[in-house]
Amino acid sequence: MNKKFTLLALALLLSTGLLRAQLSLEIIHQDSTVVGNAWSDRDLPAYAVVKNISGLPVEVALKRIDGNYNELTDSNAICWGLCFTTNISQNPPSFNRTIQPGATDTAILHVYPDLDGYTRSGPIQYVLFDYYNPSDSVAFTINYQVNGVPLSQKEVAKPELSVYPNPADDFLRVQYEVSKEASFEIINLVGAKVYSTRLDAQNSEVELDLSKLNPGVYFYTLKSEGKVVISRKLVIR
């Protein structure tokens, strides 16, 4: 083939966005393990943040890899722009999300325990991909587990956390119950800690000033003895 024609064709593909880099997507944050109580937790939500690391916009779809369920993970759902019913394994094309170069978006995954008191655990694998080039994709796995300790015992040992309002503006109120000294942290979408405060076991409520944080999506975590025991999404307006 004529060399000039080949270079011209390559330039045309690049200019029209038909030729992309080998990989456009990268997972920059995910919950590796989500823990709940087999008696009381009706929903185990997990989060994964994907970033477009290419120089072109990418229309991204989310799918769940079916067939690897167990008695815990058999009832589950995906949220990508919208939360879908449990029978939908891939978002409909009308709910694809266009991610601009350097931008991020968040997938929310759910497992719905049976509330039967049995200790169970299991993984589910998910894939985020370029809808027009499915081989341009990134896969990740979330491990879910529920603890069958009777609720009367678990209530004593498990820290409790209530955060509001969410979405938040300049202030955030944190109500908590911890048996030991703990900490509350806010993490941005690239995994950097942007706020941290100590939670005293003798108190039960603090009010945080968020006025110095930029609007956007964050995650807040409750740490006890250096371990993350609660991790959830926070939106600051």
Explain what the structure shows.
By secondary structure, the protein is mostly beta strands. It has two domains: 21-147, Immunoglobulin-like, CATH 2.60.40.3880; 159-236, Macroglobulin (MG2) domain (Immunoglobulin-like). 9% of the residues lie in helices and 49% in strands. The protein has helices at residues 3-16, 151-157; strands at 25-30, 33-37, 44-52, 58-64, 76-79, 97-99, 104-111, 120-130, 133-147, 160-164, 171-177, 182-187, 193-199, 205-209, 216-224, 227-236.
Q: Characterize the biggest β-sheet.
A: 5 strands, mixed
Going by helix content, strand content and strand pairing, the class is mainly beta
How many structural domains can be distinguished in the coordinates? 2
Task: Give helix % range.
Answer: under 10%
Strand content: over 45%
Strand order of the largest sheet: 2-9-8-4-6
The global form is globular
Q: Average pLDDT, to the nearest integer?
A: 85
Question: Could you list the spans in which at least 5 consecutive residues all have pLDDT below 50?
Answer: 13-20
Number of strands: 16
Order of helices and strands: HEEEEEEEEEHEEEEEEE
Secondary structure: elements and pairs:
Layout: H1 3-16, E1 25-30, E2 33-37, E3 44-52, E4 58-64, E5 76-79, E6 97-99, E7 104-111, E8 120-130, E9 133-147, H2 151-157, E10 160-164, E11 171-177, E12 182-187, E13 193-199, E14 205-209, E15 216-224, E16 227-236
Parallel strand pairs: 2-9
Antiparallel strand pairs: 1-3, 3-7, 4-6, 4-8, 5-7, 8-9, 10-11, 11-14, 12-13, 12-15, 15-16
